[in-house]
Write a structure and sequence with these properties.
Number of helices: 24
Number of domains: 4
Oligomer: single chain
Structural class: alpha/beta
Strand content: 5-15%
Helix content: 40-55%
Largest sheet: 7 strands, mixed
Shape: globular
Length: 733
């Protein structure tokens, strides 16, 4: 059965490979347009208090940069776009610094908050973040919060806010911007810096040394783009559910806003039908899921899944089902609550580039990073490849790297491992300083110590003084199947060699892979990847810059199966090499098969996937390409942890949906969905490596580690799945 296009659920996996639509900004929030800064929701600060503080701090930086007010009274020092929390925070800082500025608002100050449902409680979170400029902010209903903030703006600060006025363009000319705006139809609340013409639809023009964009995303509502959506009874927010009492209401959407609206209207006596294009509600907060189920069972809300509106009339809404059939349902009011979108048109007019957008500079950077990665691993793995192969430009470099250290001969492999360890230590110190939580500090200390001691110091410096083949020490620290040589003793062993020593090393490798790893997984899940692994060490330190680029969605989740395929491939390759090593059979054909498997597994898996591509794709696909999609050791730990690991990440009921946990997850897990639905996040339903960054970045301290996962898994926790036959359910109408 063909599903209509309008019902197809959009994949979270975007063409930009996991990059959310965010502007490209530097650490001071300056965009690619010099002098144009972006703060607040557009800069991924959706939490009110965080946005308020962020606007204040960035404005302080701009004030430091400018040094003082402009000598030209007709030139603004800063023009602020948007009078939300971030814009007001910036205004407070500029007011205190004595700079000349103007806030241009296309609607009204705090418009997004004013559009919240009646009596919605606004939390002053996070509690340890100070309010800038002694600006009052405590937990309060939205009406009280807006009233007190407007009063503060009128009486205490008198910030120059001009509304309704929308920015059309901002062109940089020399050391200043020319900003063009359009006055809204509601008329203009004037300010001395406005042009003489202030009639509706008039255009104003300003000169400003800096522009700070504090426009939010929530003002850019997503729309259905169907006939009738512009009718007056079609709304895109719920302000007061009592207005809809005794009326027939169709609510469109499947998120918390839609469900809260549907249940609130039903509580006030409205007759509600909730239409959602999905088969079930996967992202709802636990309390909203319970409210919806209770309302549905009581007959106060009719829920029709896998449906979507195709037309809206004065008294009806036409819904189309998954089978293509349509049905008209009565509707006095229609609420379309399907989310918001980034104001891409505004950003494009301002010349701002997005994070995932490709340009010449970004392409050059990606090529250069990939080339450096290639050169590094060709030398480190001592491969006879371009440009170091025979007859190539740098053919003499591998030999030049040979140096007699007395206790051993250093070569490209030695120097490569030394540099690799140095990179992990240097960038590990950066991670140690960046994440203040004690758990994260211990984690970075673990990564740096394990790499420096067990993956370089002992095998490369100490072991050569003790044993003939010091590389065998890696059998203990790089378990099979990450390294198949951890389990076998070929090709160095010969019939004349020391069988006892060979057996001991093979036993050590087997113990590491089949005893130590399972015991570790039992308590710690897949934490080996984020606490001890050498590949993971580079990903967590150098790769931390790009952790937010992890691909997301169903397509990416399906691609994780490649690691399981490589795990299955590692088994016959190991057996072939093991068979050849112990010479159970001596036929040439078998030897050739063994050599072939050994060569191509090492080339394709160890060199290309684990080394070159796994690192070269950091700046484009995030820092866990190898670990997440191809590593056979993680696949082995995943198979184990699904069955008996008890470690989980739990969430309480205070999630505010800011998305920080999902953004920072390097494994592309939609952590926010787990948090909002109250679902346990574990290795039975995710590729989590228990790095704990999601816990670190959560501003509400919603998430925590728990080691008491129930043995019986429920992979559909937090899901209200309803039958497609909802058409035939009795309606409360």
């Amino acid at each position: 059965m063909r599903v209509p296009d309008i019902l197809k659920v959009e994949l979270e996996f975007s063409p930009k490979l996991g990059v959310r639509d965010l502007p490209r900004i530097d650490r001071h929030h300056q965009s690619n347009v010099r002098g144009l800064y972006i703060v607040g929701d557009l800069a991924d600060a959706p939490i009110i208090k965080v946005a308020l503080r962020q606007g204040h701090d960035v404005a302080q930086h701009i004030a430091d940069e400018l040094g003082g007010p402009s000598a030209d009274p007709d030139v603004l020092d800063v023009l602020i776009v948007g009078a939300g929390p971030a814009g007001i925070g910036a205004g407070l800082a500029l007011e205190a610094r004595g700079l000349r500025f103007l806030i241009v608002e296309r609607d009204a100050p705090f418009a997004t908050i004013q559009n919240f449902p009646k009596h919605k409680l606004i939390f002053s979170e996070p509690p340890d973040l100070a309010n800038p400029g002694n600006f009052w902010f405590q937990d309060a209903p939205k009406e009280e919060l807006v009233e007190r903030w407007n009063q503060a703006l009128d009486e205490e600060h008198a910030l120059p806010i001009q509304q309704p006025e929308e920015v059309i363009s901002a062109r940089r000319q020399g050391d200043r911007f020319t900003v063009s705006t359009k006055v809204g139809s509601a008329g203009l609340q004037r300010h001395p810096h406005a042009a003489a013409s202030a009639a509706p639809d008039a255009e104003n023009r300003y000169q400003a040394r800096r522009v700070l964009v504090a426009a939010g995303k929530r003002g850019q509502l997503k729309r259905l783009d169907i006939p009738g959506e512009s009718l007056p009874h079609v709304l895109h927010c719920l302000k007061d559910p009592k207005v809809h009492a005794g009326r027939q209401v169709v609510v469109v959407g499947g998120g918390d806003s839609a469900v809260e609206a549907a249940t609130s209207i039903a509580d006030e006596g409205g007759s509600v039908l909730l239409s959602y294009r999905g088969a079930g509600f996967h992202r709802l907060k636990k309390r909203n899921l319970a409210r919806l189920e209770a309302a549905r069972e009581a007959g106060r809300v009719t829920v029709v899944t896998e449906t979507a509106p195709v037309a809206i009339g004065p008294q009806t809404v036409t819904l189309r089902g998954a089978d293509g059939s349509t049905r008209d349902v009565p509707a006095d009011d229609v609420l379309v609550l399907i989310g918001t979108r980034m104001p891409l048109e505004l950003l494009k007019r301002l010349g701002v580039r997005m994070q995932g957008e490709m340009d010449a500079a970004r392409a050059l950077w990606l090529v250069a990073f990939a080339a450096i990665t290639w050169l590094f691993y060709v030398l480190k793995q001592k491969r006879d490849l371009f440009p170091f192969g025979e007859g190539d430009p740098l053919a003499g470099l591998p030999a030049a790297l040979h140096l007699d250290l007395g206790f051993r001969t250093a070569d490209g492999g030695f120097w490569g491992t030394a540099l690799y360890s140095l990179i992990i230590v240097v960038f590990g110190i950066r991670g140690y300083r960046r994440y203040p939580d004690r758990v994260q500090k211990r984690r970075y200390l673990s990564l740096m110590t394990f790499q420096a001691l067990f993956l370089f110091g002992i095998p490369e410096l100490l072991a050569p003084l003790i044993i003939d083949r010091p590389w065998k020490f890696y059998a203990l620290t790089v378990p099979w199947p990450l390294s198949i040589w951890s389990l076998v003793d070929a090709p160095s062993w010969t019939p004349d060699g020391d069988r006892t020593t060979a057996l001991l090393w093979m036993g050590a490798g087997a113990f590491s892979a089949f005893v130590a790893i399972p015991l570790y997984v039992r308590r710690n899940g897949e934490r080996f990847c984020s606490y001890l692994c050498g590949c993971g060490g580079l990903a967590e330190t150098l790769g931390d810059f790009w952790r937010h680029l992890a691909p997301r969605g169903r397509s990416a989740r399906s691609a994780e199966r490649f690691g399981r395929a490589i795990l299955l491939l590692a088994v016959p390759v190991t057996l072939l090499i093991l068979n050849d090593a112990w010479a159970f059979f001596a036929q040439d054909a078998l030897y050739q098969t063994t050599a072939f498997a050994q060569h191509w597994y090492g080339l394709m898996v160890d060199f290309w996937l684990a080394s070159v591509l796994g690192v070269a794709l950091y700046p484009y696909l995030g820092n866990r390409v190898w670990c997440r999609f191809f590593c056979p050791l993680r696949a082995w730990m995943e198979a184990l942890s699904k069955r008996f690991s008890r470690i989980t990440i739990r969430a309480d009921d205070r999630c505010i949906g800011c998305g920080e946990c999902t953004r920072y997850c390097q494994m592309g897990i939609d952590v926010q969905r787990f948090a909002q639905t109250g679902t346990l996040l574990h290795n039975g339903n995710s590729a989590c490596i228990q790095c704990g960054i999601c816990i670190q970045v959560c501003p509400m301290d919603v998430l925590s580690i728990d080691r008491n996962r129930p043995v019986t898994l429920n992979l559909d926790e937090g899901l209200l799945a309803l039958p497609k036959a909802a058409w035939e359910q009795d309606s409360p109408r």
